[in-house]
Design brief:
Number of domains: 1
Helix content: 10-25%
Order of helices and strands: HEHEEEEEEEEEEEEEEEE
Number of helices: 2
Strand content: 35-45%
Radius of gyration: 30 Å
Shape: elongated
Oligomer: single chain
Length: about 325
C-alpha cells in the first residue's frame, strides 16, 4: 500500500507577513491615486478659471470697444456724439414701451457705472453703443414718409431691434437730421435684401451712402444663483447668465483731463466728474473655481489692493485688462 506524502499549508505567520506586505502595496496605490486625483482637480480647476476669465474679459471688451459707436454721426459740440447733436431724429420717444434709461441714446451717457453697489461690493458698468457689424441701405430707396427701409442682408437685424441709420456720403452735412434712431417691427429677408418695417417714419430718403448699425444698452453686474456667483449681462433689461465663478468685479475709469486722448488718472465711478471724459476702462475680475477643496489650505490672494485668505478651499485667480474706448480717441 502506497503511503501518501504529508501536505503542509501556510502558517499564520506567513499569512500575517503577506497581509502586511499587501497593506504597504495598497497604501502606495492609494497614495498615488489620491495624488493624481488632487493634481487632476487642481489642473481642471485652473483651466476652468482661466477659460472663464478669458471669456468674461473678451465679451466685456467687445461691448466696451463699441461704446460711443454712432456710425457717421458728426458731433456739433465738443461732447462725444450723439450728446449735444441736434441732427439726430430719435423716433423712439413715441414708442409705447420707451424707457429713457434703456432706449435714450441721445442724452444718456454712452458709458457709466456704479461703485460697490453689487454683490460682495462689486461694481456695475453700463454701455450704450452699436453692436458689431453693419449693413448698408440698398435700392429700392423708400420715400421719406414711409415706414420702410431696405438693407443688405446680414441675417442679424430683426423685429424688436433698435437701429441707427447714418449718412456717410460727402453730402451728409446738407441733410438735417443726418441720422435716425429707429425701432424695427418686422424684417423679411429674400434674395440678399432685408425689408425692414420700422415704427415711425424716416427723416429722409436714405440711399446707398447710408449705413445701418444695431444699437444696444448693456449692463454687466455680479449676481449669485444656486450659491454660486456669476457675471450677468443685461441687454435692454433682459438678464443673461454669462460666466459662473465671477466673485467680484471692480472697474476704474481712465479720465482724460488734458484733452490729449490719454488717461491722466484712473478713478472709481463715483469720482468721475464727466463720463464724456472717459477714454479707457480698467476691469479687474476675481474668479473662483466651481469646485471646493481644490487647494490644500485656504488660498491667500490679493485683489483691488486688499490681501486676505479665502473662506474656503476654492482656487481663485485675478484677471485685469485695460480697454481703450476707440470711439473716444481722436474725436474732433
Amino acid at each position: 500500500m502506497k503511503q501518501l506524502n504529508r501536505q503542509w499549508g501556510i502558517s499564520l505567520v506567513e499569512i500575517l507577513v503577506a497581509l502586511v506586505i499587501s497593506l504597504f502595496l495598497l497604501a502606495g496605490i492609494v497614495q498615488v491615486y489620491v495624488g493624481n486625483k488632487a493634481t487632476f482637480s487642481f489642473t481642471n480647476a485652473l483651466a476652468e478659471v482661466q477659460e472663464n476669465g478669458r471669456f468674461a474679459l473678451d465679451t466685456m471688451s467687445q461691448d466696451l470697444r463699441l461704446a460711443s459707436e454712432w456710425g457717421c454721426v458728426i458731433p456739433r459740440t465738443g461732447n462725444p456724439p450723439p450728446a449735444g447733436n441736434g441732427n439726430i431724429n430719435n423716433t423712439l420717444t413715441t414708442w409705447g414701451s420707451y424707457s429713457a434709461t434703456l432706449h435714450d441714446f441721445v442724452d444718456e451717457e454712452a458709458i457709466e457705472g456704479t461703485n460697490n453697489t453689487g454683490l460682495n461690493g462689486s461694481d456695475t458698468v453700463t454701455i450704450r453703443g452699436a453692436k458689431p457689424g453693419q449693413a448698408n441701405v440698398r435700392s429700392p430707396f423708400i420715400a421719406q414718409a414711409t415706414s420702410k427701409l431696405n438693407i443688405t442682408s446680414g441675417g442679424r437685424i430683426g423685429a424688436g431691434d433698435i437701429i441707427l441709420v447714418t449718412r456717410c456720403g460727402d453730402n451728409d452735412l446738407l441733410s438735417a437730421p443726418e441720422a435716425d434712431i429707429l425701432r424695427v417691427t418686422n424684417a423679411v429677408t429674400a434674395a440678399g435684401t432685408t425689408d425692414l418695417t420700422i415704427d415711425g417714419n424716416k427723416s429722409q430718403i436714405f440711399e446707398n451712402d447710408a449705413s445701418v448699425t444695431e444699437l444696444q444698452t448693456v449692463t454687466y453686474w455680479i449676481d449669485i444663483q444656486n450659491l454660486r456667483p456669476l457675471l450677468m449681462r443685461t441687454e435692454f433689461g433682459v438678464a443673461q447668465e454669462m460666466v459662473e465663478g465671477v466673485e467680484d468685479m471692480q472697474i476704474l475709469y481712465g479720465v482724460d483731463s488734458s484733452g490729449d486722448d490719454f488717461a491722466n488718472q484712473y478713478v472709481t465711478s463715483n469720482n468721475v466728474a464727466d463720463f464724456d471724459d472717459v477714454v479707457s476702462i480698467r476691469i479687474m475680475l476675481l474668479l473662483q473655481s466651481l469646485s471646493d477643496f481644490v487647494t490644500e489650505v485656504p488660498q491667500t490672494y490679493t485683489f483691488n489692493g486688499a490681501t486676505g485668505p479665502a473662506a474656503d478651499r476654492r482656487l481663485r485667480q485675478v484677471f485685469t485688462t485695460t480697454i481703450a474706448l476707440r470711439n473716444r480717441i481722436g474725436e474732433p
